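I am going through a labmate's work and have reached the protein record below. What it holds is a sequence and that sequence's fold in token form. Please read both lines and tell me whether the tokens look consistent with the sequence. Do not assume that whoever made the record got everything right. Thanks in advance; the entry in question is below.
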Amino acid sequence: MIPLLAAPPLAYAAYVALLLRLGPERLAPLLAVRQRYNRALALYSALACAQGVGILARDGRLGSAHALVCIPSASWPALWLASKFVEYLDTAFVVARGRLPTRLHALHHALTPALVMLDTLAPRPSPLFLVATVLNLATHTCMYAYYSDSARFAPLREVVTRIQIGQHATMVCLLYGAMGLADRDACEVPVGRYKVALVFFAWQLAAFLRLHVAGRR
């Protein structure tokens, strides 16, 4: 499995190298579809988020913390994984505008697909997989809505980073709490996957907190 998990970061690194080789002038035509791309991802995120919440409600997972953390639900890890590769276009738009991806941007797009692959390649998704998906989709609904029309959704500019902080803080708490329930209380806990995810979300939380603090200076 390890070679497969290394594939997304390596693919992203090669992709960024290609974008930089092409340069802003050759990539500039992509900017003509940037708004439509952002609208499409905002709409997809909103619809998929609503569906995910519906699945959690259908399976009775919103009634208690134990049910939310411990009971798995059927979901669509392959679809979510595919969307992570679609989001590589974010980087193309950055380079097309004559900028370099920030370290946070690059690491996020390089590592997130590998994290999603942990559940995609497993016999079935972990209980927290759908929860993480819903939180991510809710965040992306706001983020891509703002990018699609920054004037219309101007109020979102001040809260998107806070929403991202909330998303990652919630996952850190849920993952840590779930690992404390391993092997008891009829709680399904894939400890190995959760340890990897905890490191990832804790790093993301720290990174977005630094971004938020820097923006307030």
User: Anything to note?
Assistant: The chain has nine helices and no strands. The longest helix spans residues 2-27.
